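Page 42, continued from yesterday. The earlier attempt failed because a stray header line got pasted into the input along with the sequence. Redoing it now with the clean sequence only.
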Amino acid sequence: MADPRPSPTRGLGRSLENAAALVLRPMRSLLSVVMGEEPPLDLRLVGRTVLEAIVVGLTVGAAGCLMLIALEFLETLVLEHLLAYPHLRAVGESRTPFVDAGGVRLALVALAPMVGGLIAGLLARLAPEIRGGGGDAMIEAFHHRGGAIRRRVIALKPLASIATLASGGAGGREGPTMHLGGAIGAWIGTILPATERERRVLMVAGVAAGISAVFRTPLGAALLAIEVLYRDDFESEALIPAVLASVVAYSLSASVLSTAPMFGALPRFPFRWEHLPFYGLTAVVVALAASAFVKLLAAVRRAAARLPGPAWARPALGGLALGGLAVAVFVTIPGWLEVPAAHVATLGGGYGSGQLAITGDPALGVGSAAVLALVTIAAIRALATALTIGTGGSAGDFAPSLAIGAALGGAVGHAASAWFGVSGVAPGAFALVGMAAFYGGAANVPLAATIMVCEMAGSYDLLVPLMLAQGVAFVALRRVALYPAQVPNQRSSPAHAAAWGRHAVATIRAGELVVAGRPVITLAPGDPADVVLRVMADADQQAVFPVLDAAGQLCGLVTGPGTREIAAEDDTRWAVAADLMVAPVAVREDVALGEIARALVQHDLRAVPVIDAAGRIVGLVDEHDVSRAYAGAIDAGGRRSTQLDAVAPPP
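This time it went through. Structure tokens are written below.
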């Protein structure tokens, strides 16, 4: 029996929808007047969809800015003031200096992530899809739910992510804003006059706007939104709306927050061809690490699923383990590596670790000391992220991936200089290349990751090394998927099943349906009727019998039902096949599947002969062949599951 009590978030969702409707319904009316029911030109791209993408960019940009302001305020309050923890920040995160780590409250450090995980776990009881980073949930909604994401995600995802990250969770905010942006885009698609196809496009536009608002890479964000959905493809029809939404969200974020790139103004990195082998080595090292990281995440998820107790408690247990790791690192690392504790921070998103790898710091040392420090930072960041995300904490994997890749890339750069005597090495350049190769390879987004790093570096100096590294990492990580919900391409996506099914049907030709080796029994015009009937009785697998003249050309068809009726009613002792046959019907080898089906229906046939250019029969295509071809075409187009997750979850 259904629970009669209303959902705690349903009232909030309806209030948001009603408020938005007051603003958006007049726009819908205006669009209907301007565009009309049957516009003389197809202006959807430059008209309705563009305006909707701008609305998505404004809405998601505002939501992303609010989430970012709240998160940075609470991070400062909890981590720096309450815990006195050395919260390592990137230049673009905050201009406040790091606090002195001398008065760190280790007991609170051990417990704070558990509290944040508990809050996130309790919120996830209302919407289980808010667990984890959000990227995989967004991709799954695009492919299997028609771009529908429940409205409650708009409220619950930011709250759960702020609780996780502000308490020290080792994850990023891009994944949550990716999910939040997609949810807002899908929601706006239900209010504005949008089809299911347009709603999916608006969802992708929302993803781009969310990333652009918090990471400040507008072009890279748009490319990431259309590339992350597939392993080997792009959602090309969403490119222009994604670009527009990204630009609008970036502009809003820049006016409210800052235009500074996440890692600040970086120096130029001139191209040097002799460094290319070491950039290739960076890609190999990073690919191995990315594969290990994805396996570590999966292992933690499996272990967390086997834990006793309710699912909502698992993020708290992961937070407790993270707090213990943070205390152990803080106590032991400075003495072991002779590196300040602030440089090996375990809590937080990891942007500061990426900043250290890119811009360097004298405290990291040089040569082997720097290599060891950076590899250790990468390993600790990977373990901390797995404990946070793998147990269900609401935090993204984007920022940790960048931090791990940057640390390993920087380590290769230091090794190239110290161990191989390569001159002119800039470890920061190797850090940026490692950053792009790690996320680009693991998430199957090489183009987006390349452009994002170029935007972060403020130049395209590293374009050639980035292309080399992405090629190596992409090939090496073909069997690795940071986002398991990705499908290979549009043809494999249920979202495009109808379009690809129609395309597949249109490309099937009659010659392809002829079964090789299947004999075709033919008749001659002078064959006696009793011979014809005996042949038909013996050939129970063939329903239509071509009649060929002396030149081997088709001159008629003997069909089963018609011939049996004639034989039953008339004296056929003197009849021959020419008396029993009907007018010839045949299709050429290059005829499409639809024409074959039309011939069968129009002439009431169960099979139709297929002839070559010379008019000679090459085989028969029957009803079963056509049915199998249609079914195969649907499968090739990515047939929807009958479950479909067919109907989106109720709001």
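Notes: The chain has 24 helices and five strands.
Reminder to self: strip header lines before submitting.
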